[in-house]
Amino acid sequence: MKRVYVNEKWCLGCHLCEYNCAFANSGCDDMVKALKDVQIYPRIQIEQGNGINFAVNCRHCEEPLCVKSCITGALSVQDGVIHVDQDKCVGCYTCILVCPYGAVMPGPTGGVVQKCELCTNNSSGEPACVKGCPNRAIVFEER
Amino acid sequence: MGIDYLSPDYEVVRNPQRCIACRVCERQCANEVHSYDSEWKVMKSDDSKCVNCHRCVALCPTHALKIVKTDDTFKINANWTNEAIGEVFRQAGTGGMLLSSMGNPQPYPIYWDKILINASQVTNPSIDPLREPMETRTFLGKRPEKLERDADGSLVTDNLPPNLELSVPVLFSAMSYGSISYNAHESLARAARELGTYYNTGEGGLHEDFYQYGPHTIVQVASGRFGVHKDYLEAGAAIEIKIGQGAKPGIGGHLPGEKIVGDVSRTRMIPEGSDAISPAPHHDIYSIEDLRQLVYSLKEATNYKKPIIVKIAAVHNVAAIASGIARSGADIIAIDGYRGGTGAAPTRIRDNVGIPIELALAAVDERLRQERIRNNVSIVVGGSIRNSADIVKAIALGADAVYIGTAALLALGCHLCRTCQSGKCNWGIATQRPDLVKRLNPDIGSKRLVNLVSAWQHEIMEMMGGMGINSIEALRGNRLMLRGVGLNEKELEILGIKHAGE
Amino acid sequence: MQKEGAIRIPSGCAISGIFSRSGKRMNGEPIIQSISTMHDRSNGLGGGFAAYGIYPRSRDLYAFHVFYDSVRAKEECEKVIMANFDVTIAEKIPTREMPEITDEPLIWRYFGLPFEKLLKDTRLDEKEFVARFVTKVNTEIKGAYVFSSGKNMGVFKAVGFPEDVGRYYRLEDYEGYCWTAHGRYPTNTPGWWGGAHPFSMLDYSIVHNGEISSYDANRRFIEMFGYKCTLLTDTEVITYIVDFLNRKQHLSLKEAAQVIAAPFWSEIDRLPPEQQKKLTYLRNVFSSLLITGPFSVLLGFTGGLMALNDRLKLRSMVIGEKGDMFYVASEECAIQTIEPNIEHFRAPQGGEPVIVTLNEGVDA
Fold it and tell me: Which chains would you list as touching B if contact means 3+ CB atom pairs under 8 Å?
């Protein structure tokens, strides 16, 4: 299955992926309208320190702990992609606690969780973080 | 600190309506122009630090930024221009020579733009490169002095002196590791291999990782002899003796000690932190007969298996100098025009020394033909080849191939901010700072170089087809395919072309 | 209007050639008939013929055909000819008065050999001596133009339609084993006789239909080897290239054709290694002698004829054979008209040299 991979060697820590992610998931067709003067909640996040930058998002594990631990069945695997059904999510945050990557996070409202769904749940097509990465540090490929 | 007489040349203009304060500009500017004011929650900029490299403009996701030439001005004076005044202020403040990077930006005539190319109409057919073969394969090097036949009368083919074979008559010109980054070199090397052409190490030696690209590498021997050793000479497909460069004819180079770190130091074979100073002349070449000795020393060292290129800057007497070089055993002469780029040169020299490559090329080609030695040597020209039409014109004037440096850097992201000497290249090209170097991913860089040269190749083929020419050698020196516009008699005479309408 | 040499004039054309492998002598009638069939391919601004084997009695002497604009030019030129050559015959070339042919220059021919002592002093071989002499006359004596300089062969040309030119020169009175003809369709011409074709040097003669796009690349290269392109015509530069490759570099005609109309790299790269090496070598070493753009060329030489098309075959050219007779022309009709029973017609491929020579034992 094609997944999003990040090559730390080329990640510049510019944080563009975060903004592209937030925009893609905003449901808005204008980035300025979507993101101006708002706190963003991207599903991909840059970890950085000691001159190393790394964008982290859901690995779409083959045996996902988050799905196993979900108490309401809000998390499911469809064609390899782990989806959140925000109508079913009750915001217990168990998934956040069990995810070894820290790739599940509370959504803007705090009541339900959100995570990277490889832009299958928005109009971006290809994952927005990949499309917008200026240094091809984030790639979407079969490995 | 006294008064700073200088005001910024460029202003960063931010559209506050579009800025989402993502701070990408701030993170990407090595010159620290941008900053975030957390109290006012806005982005700010310090114009005085801006070099106009456009990194922030290119990465701003909402297109909220532009850089404009300032309209702040000293009192308008056609003689004492803002630049002239500013340079006096700068030198009065520092006491130093002015330094600049990349090629001569002054408004001298660009002869390429005063030359037009021919096309077929009626009397002979143009050729469609999509339907018919259109050949750009080029060989550089000497030709055998005479043909030989073996006992059974068949032609002896192994008496051909070493040649370079190019699938397209474009090479990447010399840019040293040190002046440009590891990733820039990797991009050039990989692109050269994919394109079937060559890149040039410049005078900084060859990084051990890049020996694998040897068959597509020209190794340079310059006056500082940095990184020159047996394996290095043997690694390349050809060896270039650099006498001079168009941006700074007659002077040497100086890579400051702070850039001589890690691999750069090891590759150049000089201690970390020591300045890499290339002398103005080669101290074993004070005359043309000395050049011959170096040419043959290098040939001996490599068992006569590598063509030797001698690179010179286009200066007033270039035709006679080239003729001397052709008679000194060189296989290829590279001529660099006064618009050639550089990582750092004294501004006055860059802007005032040398001559246009178009005139130099025309003069050299014609002189070598008059002396009947044009077939003994190939000519490669550089010094601001900007597009495929420049290449077609150069070849029709008499060049075998062209070197591109600035255009290659532009493909890699360079925006010609002409601040290479600062070492803070935001595009990861002219820098050794690891956080900046990594901005140039060679996967992207090499692909963009391949794209550029392939696109130019298509255009060259299209123009050749228009002229009814289906192989590049039939274009070489074919000056009837060129006409001048707005050139005076003398210029036309030197270029060896007629005026449009003739 | 500027004449050939001062300006480059493109032209289209008709060409035709007849060759007898057994050395049978034919008079000029058939070739005139052949070329006149393609009347529409010329526009009356140039026609000419080359014939081989026509001067058997002076076969060992150089036959110079010369145009003079004036008596003064003739006197000046003859002085130089007599100083260099032991001339046995000097005469006007016989012509017929015709209303179609006007503005005639003085047309003379001379048969002779270089003075032996002079030749020795120059340390040149005889052909080189003659070639240089012709170049010297044509570049230095105003109003004189040597248009034929081979042994036992001759070029006859004028401004006019080729069939008229043939009758004007009384070609019915000459007998040769090989004839070539040319009808010219220049886009503009001042009507200078020297500009008509064939172009000839020593015993090479060339008729050509085409307009080569590599002209200046070829010219500027070949001029490094002592040739002087004074007419600025394709035919002139092609002749010099053949002379250079065949006479001076000792390439066979086939090899010369592989330089002039070299196979494409895509073809070369598919060949067995030995052939690949040879063709790559030739293309590399003589890269500036590759001729691009349309051409069909007939190269006459002592004892043979070569037909060659450009490598894309952008000009028509067909060959036909019957018995030991070989015919070649721009159009098939030009062959049919003189030999209705051709056994085998063929259009040679682009870049494929077709070379015919006299049968073994037959004297040129």
Answer: A, C
3-state DSSP assignment of residue B309:
strand
Chain C CB contacts of B154 under 8 Å are: 278
Residues β-bridged to residue A114: A105
DSSP A65-78: HHHHH-SSS-EEEE
Structurally, at CATH architecture level, domain A60-115 sits in 2-Layer Sandwich (3.30)
Nearest by Cα to C250 from A135, B343, B147: B147
**Does residue B381 fall inside a structural domain?**
yes
Residue C287 DSSP symbol: G
| CB-CB under 8 Å, A32 with B62 | yes
C296: which 2 tokens? 């069909």
**Is C277 in contact with B479 (Cβ distance < 8 A)?**
no
Q: Which residues span the domain enclosing B273?
A: 169-473
**C151 DSSP assignment:** B
Q: How many Cβ atoms from other residues are within 10 Å of residue B32's Cβ? A: 11
**B24-38 pLDDT, tens digit each:** 999 999 999 999 999
Q: How many CB atoms neighbour CB C71 within 10 A?
A: 10
> CB-based burial of residue B198 (10 Å sphere; 0-12 exposed, 13-18 middle, 19+ buried)?
buried
pLDDT in tens, C270-305: 999 999 999 999 999 999 999 999 999 999 999 999
Contact B103, B346 (CB under 8 A): no
C4 pLDDT higher than 70:
no
d(CA C360, CA C303): 10
Q: How many CB atoms sit inside 10 A of residue C18's CB?
A: 24
Does C271 reach chain B within 8 Å, measured CB to CB? Answer: no
Is the minimum CB–CB distance between B38 and chain A shorter than 8 Å? Answer: no
From start to end of B370-467, where are the E strands?
A: 378-382, 401-404
Task: Tell me, yes or no, whether B444 and B363 share the same domain.
Answer: yes
Domains of chain A, residue spans: 1-57+121-143, 60-115
Q: Is C10 on the interface with B (CB under 8 A)?
A: yes
Which of B46, B81, B96 represents a domain boundary (last residue)? B96
Chain B residues closer than 8 Å to A36 by CB: 18-20
Query: Cα–Cα distance between C237 and C227 in angstroms, integer?
Result: 9
Distances, alpha carbon B251 to alpha carbons B278, B309, B313, B341, in Å: 9, 20, 11, 14
Task: Name every chain B residue with its beta carbon within 8 A of the beta carbon of A12.
Answer: 27-28, 435, 438-439
d(CA C109, CA C94): 10
Distance of CA B260 to the CA centre of its chain: 23
Could you tell me which CATH number the domain at A1-57+121-143 has? Answer: 3.30.70
- Does C9 have pLDDT greater than 70? no
A136–B contact, CB cutoff 8 A: yes
C188 — pLDDT class (breaks 50, 70, 90): low
Beta bridge pairs of residue B37? B42
CATH of the domain at B55: 3.30.70.20
Tally Cβ neighbours within 10 Å of residue C88.
11
C218: pLDDT strictly greater than 90 = yes
Bridge-based pairing state of the strands B138-140 and B164-166: antiparallel
**Whether the Cβ atoms of residue B266 and residue B210 lie closer than 8 Å to each other:** no
Q: What is the pLDDT of residue A103?
A: 95
